[in-house]
Specification:
mainly alpha, 2 domains, ubiquinone biosynthesis
């Protein structure tokens, strides 16, 4: 039994007990209080969290790829700038 199911079962059992007692008003008040408290906490849903986690994973992968590309370009530039390079600055295409 996972944690969510256990909490759901607990809530159901408490609700059943309260429904059979004069404490039904207390239950409504507690539910309202808990709902208001959660609303103030600015929580996100599991779906929203998973979407953001996936977006972060893809963004990190893209940043890593760009970093590797930058290192490769810097290495090429360093190789061209070393003394004894075959081409001079003016002979390099595209510069």
């Amino acid at each position: 039994m996972n944690r969510t199911q256990w909490l759901d079962d607990l809530q159901k059992n408490i609700s059943d007990l309260i429904a059979r007692s004069p404490a039904a008003d207390i239950e409504r008040n507690v539910r309202s209080l808990v709902s208001q408290t959660f609303a103030k906490l600015d929580l996100v849903t599991r779906d929203e969290f998973e979407i953001q986690a996936d977006l972060l994973t893809r963004t990190r992968a893209r940043a890593d790829a760009l970093e590797a590309q930058l290192r490769a370009l810097e290495a090429r530039l360093d190789a061209l700038d070393k003394p004894g390079a075959a081409q001079t600055q003016a002979e390099r295409p595209g510069l």
